[in-house]
Amino acid sequence: MAKCAICEKGAHFGNNVSHSNRKTPKMWKSNVKSVRVKTEGGSKKMYVCTSCLKSGKVERA
């Protein structure tokens, strides 16, 4: 699973808990996209989460 290059957000792990209180493993995946990003040396392809894109921490190429 990819991590955000800006905020290091990745997958989260925990348990699904049923009504009878049985636990099964669960993974929540973060919304990470592969995006071309402007850098000082041109443009570069990076994995960036959508919350970083929306907040303006990254400028698309």
UniProtKB/TrEMBL annotation:
Keywords: Ribonucleoprotein, Ribosomal protein. The keyword Ribosomal protein applies. The keyword Ribosomal protein applies. Gene3D superfamilies: Ribosomal protein L28/L24 (2.30.170.40). One of its GO terms (molecular function) is structural constituent of ribosome. GO terms for biological process: translation. One of its GO terms (cellular component) is ribosome. Belongs to the bacterial ribosomal protein bL28 family. HAMAP family: Ribosomal_bL28. NCBIfam families: L28 (TIGR00009). PANTHER family: 50S RIBOSOMAL PROTEIN L28 (PTHR39080), LARGE RIBOSOMAL SUBUNIT PROTEIN BL28A (PTHR39080:SF1). This is Large ribosomal subunit protein bL28. It comes from Faecalimonas umbilicata. The gene is rpmB.
